[in-house]
Write a structure and sequence with these properties.
54% helix; 7 strands; seven-stranded antiparallel β-sheet; 7 helices; alpha+beta
Length: 223
């Protein structure tokens, strides 16, 4: 599924959750405003906008995150049917549609080794197993690929022998970094600030002090 369809799907899902929450916040704001003697249709309607603002902030955050991921880090944008991580300046590992296997690619040459179901990186080498080609060792410096009869034979070229990973494990180890954690922290901080601000301005019932001041100003004005 392409990124566009994923975005549309998530937007529909969040909107379905957002509509009843928006109705609930609108009624809550109106009910408590009326109970405190200061009902406001505008205030209640603005309170109901909160779920959609949260969704909008999330989509905006993701667009900047996706742009940074692809343009600066050369990794996939985080959603969709493609998973991509760089191995070094020239090589990358990519999975499309499925995470059961992937391919090692090289800039300007395309796929170097396809149908990789096991792999690991040790220094300047990639050790792995391909469903088509069998066990292999890829020298990232010289671009030479050496094939072996068994995975253990390929692993024995190193001391101590490394442990092979599944494509998902290899992807996870090289995809998630401090940039992702910082991006999520920024998202949560902005969303919490938005929710708290909206709660204070439009959702929380008007305080007695506010009503007293409002009534005093109103009486003074008429006097």
């Amino acid at each position: 599924m392409g990124i566009g369809l994923v975005l549309v799907g998530w937007t529909i899902i969040f909107t379905c959750f957002g509509v009843p929450i928006a109705i609930g916040l609108t009624l809550w704001s109106w009910f408590w405003g009326r109970r405190r003697g200061h009902p406001s249709v505008l205030r209640a309607l603005l309170a109901g906008l909160l779920p959609f603002l949260v969704i909008g902030v999330g989509l905006t955050w993701w667009m900047f995150y996706a742009l940074y991921s692809e343009a600066v880090r050369n990794v996939d944008p985080g959603i969709g049917d493609t998973w991509l991580i760089p191995i070094d300046d020239d090589y990358a590992f990519i999975m499309i549609d499925t995470t059961d296997d992937g391919a090692i690619t090289k800039s300007g040459e395309g796929v170097v080794i396809a149908d990789v179901i096991k792999l690991t990186k040790i220094e300047d080498f990639i050790v792995g197993v391909s469903k088509k080609s069998g066990a292999f060792v890829l020298d990232l410096t010289s671009a030479q690929v050496t094939y072996y009869a068994t995975p253990q034979e390929a692993l024995n070229q190193f001391s101590p022998p490394p442990e092979l990973q599944t494509p998902t494990e290899f992807y996870g180890e090289h995809r998630i970094g401090w940039q992702d954690r910082l991006a999520l922290l920024i998202l949560f901080a902005v969303e919490l600030l938005l929710i708290w601000t909206w709660f204070k301005l439009f959702i929380r019932p008007p305080s007695s002090r506010f009503l007293h001041t409002h009534q005093y100003d109103h009486a003074t004005f008429h006097h």
